[in-house]
Write a structure and sequence with these properties.
The protein is of the alpha+beta class. The chain is 55% helix and 21% strand. Helix 1 packs antiparallel against helix 2 (29-59).
């Protein structure tokens, strides 16, 4: 990932340098052409991972192993489906739930 970002930075800076050298000299050109790459890098490096992390935290409910076991023991065996996706991520489908938000959801088991 680090090499990708460094390559991305180098390409952006080189393209801005070529644009700067090809255009007529303007006093505002250095600030205009050399600010754009930093804005794009800030968006890619900062905002996209933060949005993905927030979506991950909202979609995958953190829970403990005891709550999962209690949910499974209190449910009808034919009324639910618990699918292991990967690692500590699971998908739970409850056929007998009345509320739409309780019919299916993702959850992750917290360590500790």
């Amino acid at each position: 990932m680090k090499m990708f970002l460094l390559g991305f930075l180098a390409c952006y800076l080189l393209s801005c340098l070529f644009i700067f050298l090809e255009e007529e000299y303007d006093i505002l050109a250095p600030s205009w052409f050399f600010i754009k790459p930093w804005c794009v890098i800030c968006i890619v490096v900062c905002f996209v991972p933060i949005w993905l992390y927030k979506i991950f935290r909202l979609v995958f409910y953190p829970t403990t192993q005891e709550r999962v076991e209690r949910l499974i023991t209190n449910s009808n065996p034919k009324g639910y489906k618990n699918i292991h996706l990967c690692g500590n991520l699971y998908f739970f489908r409850d056929y007998e739930a009345k509320a739409f938000v309780n019919k299916f959801f993702f959850y992750r088991v917290k360590r500790g």
